[in-house]
């Protein structure tokens, strides 16, 4: 198995059949078929279910497709990192970030860094925190921007300022009567819309005060929580910095005054990794 075989395999998957892949790769169809067969023989697995018009991946093929993409990303990363190995003023920063990042963070980190290193280019991968951590361990990216909670094992972590959770809602006469801060007990019986990763933290904070939360909706993005709250379906619980992520003119916000309901954006890298000069400069620029 070599890089060329993996590239051929990925192209076949992306194109959906051998004929289209051979055309894109500018090689003869029989030659490409032989490369795929040799790859299957080398790995001793069947990679495709071959249909009359389109091929689909076997379970082994799906595993290889994910790993092959990571390998090719790593190969490209090595090449790009060599470009910036001397000065760090040229090259590409490969960074993964959660989607729920507000404009102030972008301005205070990326814009400031860009003004100092204006020849740096960026490859940005978006996802939820566990996906960003997986990309980091796969070495597809060098730096991750994630949000607590997460497992710190094997990671260097630089925590940014702590921020409280807020309750976002459209209409609620009870909450309207309270000033800027509310307690967990003020949310008793309210239909709550929460981000899946915060479920244990939120439920635990409520139960410590003998309040059984009414979890109306669980989802995978703070923006989804805010959009649902904006329709009047319930009360979203999100980090404070998330409140400007969506255009939601109907929403009202209250800080939840509870020491357990705080979150932090964190900058992570792999322990014992040799960061490129570009990535090192980026980390130093944040600290």
From TrEMBL:
Pfam families for the chain: HTH_1, LysR_substrate
Keyword Cell cycle belongs to the record: no
Molecular function terms from GO: DNA binding; DNA-binding transcription factor activity
Database matches in SUPFAM superfamilies: Periplasmic binding protein-like II (SSF53850), Winged helix' DNA-binding domain (SSF46785)
Cellular component, GO, one term: cytosol
Residue ranges constituting the HTH lysR-type domain according to the UniProt record: 1-58
Domain of life: Bacteria
Family according to the record: Belongs to the LysR transcriptional regulatory family.
Name of this chain's protein: LysR family transcriptional regulator
Organism: Tissierella pigra
């Amino acid at each position: 198995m070599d890089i060329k075989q993996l590239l051929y395999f990925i192209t076949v998957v992306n194109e959906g059949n051998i004929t289209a892949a051979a055309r894109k790769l500018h090689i003869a169809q029989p030659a490409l078929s032989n490369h795929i067969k040799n790859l299957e023989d080398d790995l001793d697995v069947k990679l495709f279910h071959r249909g009359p018009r389109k091929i689909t991946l076997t379970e082994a093929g799906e595993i290889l497709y994910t790993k092959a993409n990571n390998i090719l990303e790593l190969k490209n990363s090595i090449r790009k990192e060599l470009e910036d190995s001397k000065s760090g003023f040229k090259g590409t920063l490969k960074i993964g970030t959660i989607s729920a990042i507000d404009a102030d963070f972008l301005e205070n980190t990326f814009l400031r860094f860009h003004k100092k290193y204006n020849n740096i280019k960026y490859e940005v991968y978006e996802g939820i925190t566990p996906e960003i951590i997986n990309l980091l361990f796969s070495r597809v990216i060098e730096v991750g921007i994630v949000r607590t909670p997460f497992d710190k094992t094997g990671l260097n972590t630089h925590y940014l300022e702590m921020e409280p959770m807020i309750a976002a809602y459209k209409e609620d006469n009870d909450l309207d009567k309270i000033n800027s801060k509310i307690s967990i007990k003020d949310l008793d019986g309210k239909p709550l819309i929460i981000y899946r990763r915060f479920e244990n933290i939120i439920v635990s904070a409520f139960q410590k005060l003998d309040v059984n939360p009414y979890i109306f909706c669980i989802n995978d993005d703070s923006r989804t929580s805010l959009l649902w709250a904006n329709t009047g379906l319930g009360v979203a619980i999100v980090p404070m910095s998330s409140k400007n992520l969506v255009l939601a003119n109907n929403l009202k916000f209250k800080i939840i005054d509870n020491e357990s309901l705080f979150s932090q954006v964190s900058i992570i890298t792999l322990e014992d990794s040799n960061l490129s000069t570009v990535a090192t400069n980026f980390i130093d620029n944040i600290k």
